[in-house]
Amino acid sequence: MGAMSGTSLDGVDAAVIETDGESVFGFGESAYRPYSEAERAVLRAALGRWEGPEVEAAAEIVETAHAEILSRFENVALIGFHGQTFAHDPRGRGTHQAGSGAILAEALGVPVVWDFRSSDVRFGGEGAPLAPFYHFALAKFVGAAAPLAFLNLGGVGNLTFVDPGFARPEAEGALLAFDTGPANAPIDDLVQGRLGRTRDDDGALAAAGEVDDAVVARFLEHPHFYRMAPKSLDRDAFAVLSQEVEALSDADAAATLTACAAAAVMRGMEHCPSSPERLLVTGGGRHNPVMMAMIAAGCDCPVGPVEDVGLDGDMLEAQAFAFLAARVARGLPTSAPSTTGVRAAVGGGTISRPGELGLGAALAGS
Ligand SMILES: Nc1ncnc2c1ncn2[C@@H]1O[C@H](COP(=O)(O)OP(=O)(O)OP(=O)(O)O)[C@@H](O)[C@H]1O
Ligand SMILES: CC(=O)N[C@H]1[C@@H]2OC[C@@H](O2)[C@@H](O)[C@@H]1O[C@H](C)C(=O)O
User: What GO molecular function annotation could you give as one example from this UniProt entry (predicted)?
Assistant: First the structure.
Protein backbone atom coordinates (compact mmCIF):
# COMPACT_ATOMS: atom_id res chain seq x y z
CA MET A 1 0.00 0.00 0.00
CA GLY A 2 1.24 3.48 -0.82
CA ALA A 3 0.23 6.82 0.66
CA MET A 4 0.83 10.23 -0.84
CA SER A 5 0.25 13.70 0.56
CA GLY A 6 1.13 15.95 -2.36
CA THR A 7 2.17 19.57 -2.79
CA SER A 8 -1.46 20.66 -3.35
CA LEU A 9 -2.07 20.02 0.37
CA ASP A 10 -5.55 18.78 -0.52
CA GLY A 11 -5.39 15.47 1.33
CA VAL A 12 -3.94 11.97 1.59
CA ASP A 13 -4.36 9.37 -1.17
CA ALA A 14 -3.85 5.71 -0.27
CA ALA A 15 -3.87 2.79 -2.69
CA VAL A 16 -3.11 -0.93 -2.66
CA ILE A 17 -1.34 -2.65 -5.54
CA GLU A 18 -0.05 -6.15 -6.16
CA THR A 19 3.57 -5.92 -7.16
CA ASP A 20 7.03 -7.40 -6.70
CA GLY A 21 8.60 -3.99 -7.33
CA GLU A 22 9.32 -4.87 -10.96
CA SER A 23 5.94 -5.70 -12.49
CA VAL A 24 2.44 -4.59 -11.62
CA PHE A 25 0.04 -7.55 -11.26
CA GLY A 26 -3.12 -5.76 -10.20
CA PHE A 27 -4.76 -3.03 -8.17
CA GLY A 28 -6.57 -3.20 -4.85
CA GLU A 29 -8.66 -0.80 -2.81
CA SER A 30 -7.98 2.91 -2.50
CA ALA A 31 -9.15 5.78 -0.31
CA TYR A 32 -8.88 9.55 0.00
CA ARG A 33 -8.79 11.53 3.22
CA PRO A 34 -9.06 15.30 2.64
CA TYR A 35 -7.44 17.69 5.09
CA SER A 36 -9.94 19.92 6.89
CA GLU A 37 -9.71 23.69 6.46
CA ALA A 38 -8.10 23.99 9.90
CA GLU A 39 -5.56 21.25 9.14
CA ARG A 40 -4.71 22.82 5.80
CA ALA A 41 -4.01 26.16 7.46
CA VAL A 42 -1.45 24.45 9.73
CA LEU A 43 0.14 22.70 6.73
CA ARG A 44 0.30 25.97 4.77
CA ALA A 45 2.07 27.66 7.67
CA ALA A 46 4.87 25.07 7.39
CA LEU A 47 5.48 25.65 3.65
CA GLY A 48 9.08 26.63 2.94
CA ARG A 49 10.22 25.70 6.47
CA TRP A 50 12.71 22.98 7.40
CA GLU A 51 12.15 22.78 11.16
CA GLY A 52 10.55 24.52 14.10
CA PRO A 53 7.13 24.46 15.77
CA GLU A 54 5.23 25.03 12.49
CA VAL A 55 6.82 21.93 10.94
CA GLU A 56 6.30 19.87 14.10
CA ALA A 57 2.61 20.78 14.26
CA ALA A 58 2.20 20.00 10.56
CA ALA A 59 4.06 16.66 10.87
CA GLU A 60 1.66 15.61 13.61
CA ILE A 61 -1.31 16.31 11.34
CA VAL A 62 0.35 14.37 8.51
CA GLU A 63 0.99 11.37 10.78
CA THR A 64 -2.50 11.39 12.29
CA ALA A 65 -4.24 11.70 8.91
CA HIS A 66 -2.15 8.82 7.55
CA ALA A 67 -2.74 6.60 10.60
CA GLU A 68 -6.48 7.24 10.17
CA ILE A 69 -6.69 6.37 6.49
CA LEU A 70 -4.16 3.55 6.49
CA SER A 71 -5.82 1.74 9.40
CA ARG A 72 -8.90 1.21 7.18
CA PHE A 73 -6.98 -1.35 5.09
CA GLU A 74 -6.38 -5.01 5.91
CA ASN A 75 -3.98 -7.66 4.63
CA VAL A 76 -1.27 -5.23 3.60
CA ALA A 77 2.29 -6.60 3.53
CA LEU A 78 4.20 -3.33 3.27
CA ILE A 79 3.47 0.40 3.32
CA GLY A 80 5.21 3.12 1.29
CA PHE A 81 4.78 6.44 3.11
CA HIS A 82 5.84 9.54 1.17
CA GLY A 83 5.09 12.13 3.85
CA GLN A 84 4.61 15.82 3.09
CA THR A 85 7.18 17.99 1.35
CA PHE A 86 7.31 21.47 2.86
CA ALA A 87 10.75 22.43 1.56
CA HIS A 88 12.81 21.12 -1.34
CA ASP A 89 16.25 22.51 -2.20
CA PRO A 90 18.35 19.62 -3.54
CA ARG A 91 21.37 21.82 -4.42
CA GLY A 92 21.26 23.54 -1.04
CA ARG A 93 19.71 22.33 2.19
CA GLY A 94 18.39 19.09 0.69
CA THR A 95 14.83 17.83 0.80
CA HIS A 96 12.54 17.04 3.69
CA GLN A 97 9.28 15.10 3.88
CA ALA A 98 7.50 15.62 7.18
CA GLY A 99 6.00 12.72 9.10
CA SER A 100 7.64 9.70 10.72
CA GLY A 101 7.34 6.27 9.09
CA ALA A 102 8.70 4.73 12.30
CA ILE A 103 5.70 6.03 14.26
CA LEU A 104 3.30 4.79 11.56
CA ALA A 105 4.90 1.31 11.58
CA GLU A 106 4.36 1.23 15.33
CA ALA A 107 0.77 2.47 15.09
CA LEU A 108 -0.27 0.19 12.21
CA GLY A 109 1.75 -2.94 12.97
CA VAL A 110 3.03 -3.11 9.39
CA PRO A 111 6.56 -2.38 8.07
CA VAL A 112 6.78 1.11 6.54
CA VAL A 113 9.24 2.36 3.93
CA TRP A 114 9.75 6.14 4.09
CA ASP A 115 12.24 8.98 3.49
CA PHE A 116 12.41 8.02 -0.18
CA ARG A 117 14.23 11.12 -1.42
CA SER A 118 17.24 11.71 0.88
CA SER A 119 19.70 9.17 -0.47
CA ASP A 120 19.12 10.32 -4.05
CA VAL A 121 20.01 13.89 -3.01
CA ARG A 122 23.02 12.60 -1.04
CA PHE A 123 24.35 11.03 -4.24
CA GLY A 124 23.95 14.19 -6.30
CA GLY A 125 20.35 13.75 -7.49
CA GLU A 126 17.39 16.11 -7.45
CA GLY A 127 15.48 13.77 -5.10
CA ALA A 128 12.50 14.11 -7.48
CA PRO A 129 10.59 13.05 -9.44
CA LEU A 130 10.46 9.46 -8.16
CA ALA A 131 7.29 8.20 -9.88
CA PRO A 132 9.17 7.53 -13.18
CA PHE A 133 10.24 3.97 -12.25
CA TYR A 134 6.55 3.24 -11.64
CA HIS A 135 5.63 4.91 -14.95
CA PHE A 136 8.04 2.47 -16.61
CA ALA A 137 6.26 -0.51 -15.00
CA LEU A 138 2.88 0.95 -15.99
CA ALA A 139 3.94 1.36 -19.62
CA LYS A 140 4.67 -2.39 -19.61
CA PHE A 141 1.42 -3.12 -17.73
CA VAL A 142 -0.69 -1.37 -20.39
CA GLY A 143 1.25 -3.14 -23.16
CA ALA A 144 2.81 -0.03 -24.69
CA ALA A 145 4.91 -0.93 -27.74
CA ALA A 146 6.24 2.56 -28.55
CA PRO A 147 7.63 5.40 -26.39
CA LEU A 148 4.99 7.32 -24.48
CA ALA A 149 4.95 10.07 -21.87
CA PHE A 150 3.26 10.46 -18.49
CA LEU A 151 2.41 13.93 -17.22
CA ASN A 152 1.45 14.51 -13.59
CA LEU A 153 -0.49 17.74 -12.99
CA GLY A 154 -0.32 18.15 -9.22
CA GLY A 155 0.68 21.28 -7.32
CA VAL A 156 3.82 20.99 -9.42
CA GLY A 157 3.92 19.27 -12.84
CA ASN A 158 6.26 16.43 -13.79
CA LEU A 159 6.84 14.63 -17.07
CA THR A 160 8.28 11.16 -17.76
CA PHE A 161 9.31 9.95 -21.20
CA VAL A 162 9.25 6.11 -21.24
CA ASP A 163 10.73 3.79 -23.84
CA PRO A 164 9.14 0.41 -23.01
CA GLY A 165 11.62 -1.36 -25.30
CA PHE A 166 14.12 -1.57 -22.44
CA ALA A 167 14.13 -4.36 -19.87
CA ARG A 168 14.87 -2.26 -16.78
CA PRO A 169 14.01 1.33 -15.81
CA GLU A 170 17.59 2.19 -14.80
CA ALA A 171 18.92 1.32 -18.31
CA GLU A 172 20.28 4.36 -20.15
CA GLY A 173 17.60 5.53 -22.59
CA ALA A 174 14.65 3.84 -20.85
CA LEU A 175 13.45 7.01 -19.08
CA LEU A 176 13.83 10.77 -19.03
CA ALA A 177 12.06 12.65 -16.26
CA PHE A 178 11.84 16.10 -14.71
CA ASP A 179 9.49 18.67 -13.18
CA THR A 180 7.87 20.78 -15.90
CA GLY A 181 7.00 23.80 -13.76
CA PRO A 182 4.21 24.92 -11.49
CA ALA A 183 0.86 23.28 -12.29
CA ASN A 184 -2.10 23.76 -9.88
CA ALA A 185 -0.32 25.36 -6.90
CA PRO A 186 -0.37 28.97 -8.18
CA ILE A 187 -4.03 28.60 -9.23
CA ASP A 188 -4.98 27.11 -5.85
CA ASP A 189 -3.13 29.92 -4.05
CA LEU A 190 -4.88 32.54 -6.19
CA VAL A 191 -8.42 31.29 -5.55
CA GLN A 192 -7.62 30.65 -1.89
CA GLY A 193 -6.28 34.16 -1.40
CA ARG A 194 -8.90 36.04 -3.41
CA LEU A 195 -12.04 33.92 -3.08
CA GLY A 196 -11.44 31.61 -0.11
CA ARG A 197 -11.86 28.56 -2.34
CA THR A 198 -9.54 25.55 -2.54
CA ARG A 199 -9.42 25.24 -6.36
CA ASP A 200 -10.72 26.60 -9.65
CA ASP A 201 -13.39 23.92 -10.01
CA ASP A 202 -13.35 22.44 -13.53
CA GLY A 203 -11.41 25.52 -14.65
CA ALA A 204 -14.63 27.58 -14.62
CA LEU A 205 -12.86 30.79 -13.59
CA ALA A 206 -10.05 30.33 -16.15
CA ALA A 207 -12.65 29.63 -18.86
CA ALA A 208 -14.22 33.05 -18.22
CA GLY A 209 -10.92 34.93 -18.45
CA GLU A 210 -8.38 36.08 -21.02
CA VAL A 211 -4.75 34.98 -20.98
CA ASP A 212 -2.18 37.77 -20.50
CA ASP A 213 0.45 36.64 -23.02
CA ALA A 214 3.07 39.06 -21.70
CA VAL A 215 2.95 37.38 -18.27
CA VAL A 216 3.31 33.94 -19.88
CA ALA A 217 6.30 35.16 -21.93
CA ARG A 218 8.02 36.55 -18.80
CA PHE A 219 7.25 33.33 -16.92
CA LEU A 220 9.08 31.33 -19.60
CA GLU A 221 12.22 33.43 -18.97
CA HIS A 222 12.63 31.71 -15.57
CA PRO A 223 16.03 29.90 -15.31
CA HIS A 224 14.22 26.58 -14.79
CA PHE A 225 13.31 26.51 -18.48
CA TYR A 226 16.95 26.91 -19.53
CA ARG A 227 18.15 23.95 -17.45
CA MET A 228 18.71 20.52 -18.91
CA ALA A 229 16.62 17.63 -17.54
CA PRO A 230 16.53 16.02 -15.01
CA LYS A 231 15.50 18.96 -12.83
CA SER A 232 13.08 19.45 -9.96
CA LEU A 233 11.22 22.26 -8.26
CA ASP A 234 10.08 23.39 -4.87
CA ARG A 235 6.31 24.02 -4.70
CA ASP A 236 6.88 27.74 -4.31
CA ALA A 237 9.79 28.20 -6.74
CA PHE A 238 7.49 30.40 -8.86
CA ALA A 239 6.03 32.47 -6.02
CA VAL A 240 6.74 35.57 -8.16
CA LEU A 241 3.80 34.51 -10.35
CA SER A 242 1.32 35.76 -7.76
CA GLN A 243 2.74 39.30 -8.13
CA GLU A 244 2.70 38.99 -11.92
CA VAL A 245 -1.08 38.47 -11.93
CA GLU A 246 -1.87 40.83 -9.05
CA ALA A 247 -3.32 43.56 -11.27
CA LEU A 248 -5.46 41.14 -13.33
CA SER A 249 -9.11 40.30 -12.66
CA ASP A 250 -9.83 36.97 -10.92
CA ALA A 251 -10.80 35.30 -14.20
CA ASP A 252 -7.88 36.73 -16.22
CA ALA A 253 -5.43 35.78 -13.47
CA ALA A 254 -6.77 32.20 -13.38
CA ALA A 255 -6.64 31.94 -17.18
CA THR A 256 -3.07 33.28 -17.21
CA LEU A 257 -1.82 30.93 -14.47
CA THR A 258 -3.49 28.01 -16.25
CA ALA A 259 -1.75 29.05 -19.48
CA CYS A 260 1.59 29.22 -17.60
CA ALA A 261 1.15 25.62 -16.39
CA ALA A 262 0.38 24.50 -19.96
CA ALA A 263 3.28 26.53 -21.45
CA ALA A 264 5.67 24.84 -18.98
CA VAL A 265 4.45 21.44 -20.22
CA MET A 266 5.04 22.51 -23.85
CA ARG A 267 8.61 23.51 -22.96
CA GLY A 268 8.98 20.17 -21.22
CA MET A 269 7.87 18.20 -24.26
CA GLU A 270 10.87 19.69 -26.11
CA HIS A 271 13.16 17.66 -23.82
CA CYS A 272 11.72 14.33 -25.02
CA PRO A 273 14.38 12.45 -27.03
CA SER A 274 11.74 11.49 -29.62
CA SER A 275 8.08 12.28 -30.10
CA PRO A 276 6.03 10.07 -27.74
CA GLU A 277 3.12 8.13 -29.20
CA ARG A 278 0.78 9.73 -26.66
CA LEU A 279 0.76 11.88 -23.54
CA LEU A 280 -1.08 10.27 -20.61
CA VAL A 281 -2.11 12.75 -17.94
CA THR A 282 -2.46 11.93 -14.26
CA GLY A 283 -3.04 14.08 -11.15
CA GLY A 284 -5.78 16.57 -10.27
CA GLY A 285 -5.11 18.93 -13.18
CA ARG A 286 -6.57 16.42 -15.63
CA HIS A 287 -9.97 17.30 -14.12
CA ASN A 288 -9.47 20.88 -15.36
CA PRO A 289 -10.74 20.96 -18.96
CA VAL A 290 -9.23 24.40 -19.64
CA MET A 291 -5.75 23.23 -18.68
CA MET A 292 -6.18 19.99 -20.63
CA ALA A 293 -7.34 21.83 -23.76
CA MET A 294 -4.41 24.25 -23.60
CA ILE A 295 -1.95 21.33 -23.31
CA ALA A 296 -3.62 19.37 -26.11
CA ALA A 297 -3.55 22.44 -28.37
CA GLY A 298 0.22 22.75 -27.94
CA CYS A 299 1.14 19.07 -28.29
CA ASP A 300 2.03 17.09 -31.43
CA CYS A 301 0.72 13.81 -30.00
CA PRO A 302 -2.69 12.76 -28.63
CA VAL A 303 -3.28 13.93 -25.04
CA GLY A 304 -5.69 12.24 -22.64
CA PRO A 305 -6.16 11.16 -19.02
CA VAL A 306 -4.54 7.89 -17.88
CA GLU A 307 -8.09 6.53 -17.62
CA ASP A 308 -7.86 6.15 -21.44
CA VAL A 309 -5.61 3.13 -20.82
CA GLY A 310 -7.52 1.87 -17.76
CA LEU A 311 -5.42 3.49 -15.00
CA ASP A 312 -6.57 5.61 -12.04
CA GLY A 313 -5.17 9.14 -12.24
CA ASP A 314 -6.30 10.08 -8.74
CA MET A 315 -4.35 7.22 -7.15
CA LEU A 316 -1.35 6.82 -9.42
CA GLU A 317 1.13 8.63 -7.14
CA ALA A 318 -0.02 6.69 -4.07
CA GLN A 319 0.40 3.49 -6.09
CA ALA A 320 3.88 4.70 -7.11
CA PHE A 321 5.01 4.79 -3.48
CA ALA A 322 3.62 1.28 -2.89
CA PHE A 323 5.64 0.12 -5.89
CA LEU A 324 8.79 1.97 -4.74
CA ALA A 325 8.42 0.50 -1.23
CA ALA A 326 8.47 -2.99 -2.74
CA ARG A 327 11.64 -2.05 -4.67
CA VAL A 328 13.32 -0.77 -1.50
CA ALA A 329 12.40 -3.99 0.33
CA ARG A 330 14.07 -5.98 -2.47
CA GLY A 331 17.15 -3.75 -2.63
CA LEU A 332 16.31 -2.49 -6.14
CA PRO A 333 17.08 1.09 -7.29
CA THR A 334 14.34 3.71 -7.24
CA SER A 335 16.02 6.45 -9.29
CA ALA A 336 18.69 6.77 -11.97
CA PRO A 337 20.80 9.46 -13.69
CA SER A 338 18.05 10.00 -16.27
CA THR A 339 15.25 10.48 -13.72
CA THR A 340 16.85 12.63 -11.00
CA GLY A 341 20.40 13.33 -12.20
CA VAL A 342 21.78 11.07 -9.42
CA ARG A 343 25.34 9.89 -10.18
CA ALA A 344 24.33 6.22 -10.46
CA ALA A 345 21.12 4.24 -10.00
CA VAL A 346 20.33 4.30 -6.30
CA GLY A 347 17.71 2.90 -3.94
CA GLY A 348 16.11 5.37 -1.55
CA GLY A 349 14.10 4.69 1.56
CA THR A 350 14.32 3.64 5.18
CA ILE A 351 12.45 0.54 6.38
CA SER A 352 10.88 0.78 9.84
CA ARG A 353 9.39 -2.32 11.39
CA PRO A 354 6.79 -2.46 14.19
CA GLY A 355 8.48 -2.80 17.57
CA GLU A 356 11.66 -0.98 16.59
CA LEU A 357 10.83 2.14 18.54
CA GLY A 358 10.70 0.02 21.67
CA LEU A 359 7.41 1.58 22.78
CA GLY A 360 6.06 -1.82 23.89
CA ALA A 361 9.01 -2.41 26.23
CA ALA A 362 8.88 1.15 27.51
CA LEU A 363 5.18 0.82 28.35
CA ALA A 364 5.65 -2.59 29.98
CA GLY A 365 8.40 -1.21 32.19
CA SER A 366 6.49 1.90 33.23
N1 LIG B 1 -12.31 19.26 -10.74
C2 LIG B 1 -11.18 19.98 -10.68
N3 LIG B 1 -11.08 21.16 -11.31
C4 LIG B 1 -9.97 21.90 -11.26
N5 LIG B 1 -8.86 21.53 -10.60
C6 LIG B 1 -8.89 20.36 -9.96
C7 LIG B 1 -10.04 19.52 -9.96
N8 LIG B 1 -9.74 18.41 -9.23
C9 LIG B 1 -8.49 18.57 -8.79
N10 LIG B 1 -7.96 19.74 -9.22
C11 LIG B 1 -6.63 20.29 -8.92
O12 LIG B 1 -5.74 19.24 -8.62
C13 LIG B 1 -5.11 19.48 -7.37
C14 LIG B 1 -4.81 18.19 -6.68
O15 LIG B 1 -4.04 17.40 -7.54
P16 LIG B 1 -3.16 16.21 -7.01
O17 LIG B 1 -3.85 15.54 -5.89
O18 LIG B 1 -2.74 15.42 -8.18
O19 LIG B 1 -1.91 17.04 -6.44
P20 LIG B 1 -0.82 16.60 -5.40
O21 LIG B 1 -0.59 15.13 -5.48
O22 LIG B 1 -1.21 17.18 -4.08
O23 LIG B 1 0.46 17.41 -5.92
P24 LIG B 1 1.91 16.88 -6.43
O25 LIG B 1 1.67 15.88 -7.50
O26 LIG B 1 2.57 18.13 -6.89
O27 LIG B 1 2.57 16.31 -5.21
C28 LIG B 1 -6.06 20.38 -6.60
O29 LIG B 1 -5.38 21.16 -5.65
C30 LIG B 1 -6.69 21.21 -7.71
O31 LIG B 1 -5.90 22.32 -7.98
C1 LIG C 1 10.05 17.19 -3.66
C2 LIG C 1 8.68 16.73 -4.00
O3 LIG C 1 7.92 16.32 -3.14
N4 LIG C 1 8.35 16.76 -5.30
C5 LIG C 1 7.05 16.32 -5.80
C6 LIG C 1 6.29 17.53 -6.35
O7 LIG C 1 4.99 17.12 -6.85
C8 LIG C 1 5.11 16.82 -8.24
C9 LIG C 1 6.57 17.00 -8.52
O10 LIG C 1 6.94 17.98 -7.53
C11 LIG C 1 7.40 15.71 -8.26
O12 LIG C 1 8.75 16.01 -8.49
C13 LIG C 1 7.28 15.22 -6.81
O14 LIG C 1 6.28 14.27 -6.60
C15 LIG C 1 6.09 13.10 -7.36
C16 LIG C 1 5.21 12.16 -6.62
C17 LIG C 1 7.37 12.33 -7.74
O18 LIG C 1 8.34 12.31 -6.97
O19 LIG C 1 7.34 11.68 -8.78
Answer: kinase activity
